[in-house]
Fold this sequence. Notes:
- This protein is mostly helical and 173 residues long.
- It has two domains: 1-73, Orthogonal Bundle (Rna Polymerase Sigma Factor, Chain: A), CATH 1.10.1740; 76-163, Arc Repressor Mutant, subunit A.
- The chain has nine helices and no strands.
- The longest helix is centred in the N-terminal third of the chain and has 22 residues, at 47-68.
Amino acid sequence: MRQWIETNLDRLYGFAFALAQDGEQARDLVQDCALRALEARRFPRDEAAYRAWLFRILHNAFIDRCRKAGREVEIDAALDVADDEDSGWKGDRRIVDVVTIRIAVAKLPIAHREIIALVDFVGFSYAEAANVLDIAEGTVMSRLSRARKALLDIIADDNITPLVRTAHTRRLR
């Protein structure tokens, strides 16, 4: 079981960071998760089920920490780019994209951050994310759709130079 924890450490940290938005808190959450998993008397024997179980432990640890700190975690049930031609800019463009997405994700409500982190960052299937969050698979799909739209809206709103809609761009939509 220790090997399954070690295999998932990077993904657990990514999910923890998406939730906490702080590196130190994310490391603490992963450590709490690993400790709880290692101390558990009963645990899933299947590797995929064990992985989902780890993420549920981490999610619950995050909620516990928020409650202890007096912060209420609101999971609102209603929340249920072309390549640059100049190849010299591609590396810089990727960095700008990553930073832009990280900043935008930090502005999302927790329900949106957690679903995007599980499906888009960690790579969980809808069923696995539903298991971690203890919600229906259909809820995962609708929440993810709204989260992605909110993320795109934040990125568009924060765009320094808004894109001008031309006749060409209107035809593409």
